[in-house]
Design goal:
elongated
Length: 87
Amino acid sequence: MNSKHNRSTLPRMNRAQKLRIRYLHDTEYTPAELAEAIGCNRDIVYRGFIPAGCPHKKDQAGHISINGLDFHYHTLSNTPRRYLHAT
């Protein structure tokens, strides 16, 4: 794959979205509900977070459910950190 995007990286999120992720509950969300809760398009969840390794479950009918706390911890642990270096 000769693309500048790697499937293991999370999509970019603005500050408001990062703050909303903190308030997700320990319940199962559909991708549309999760997108509404964090303030993004549901395609970002389907095309960005799930291929990047977001913990999710599929039932027999193929419906996806995502636990709010698992999603929160996954984004915290996989978001690159910015370090300020002293000069």
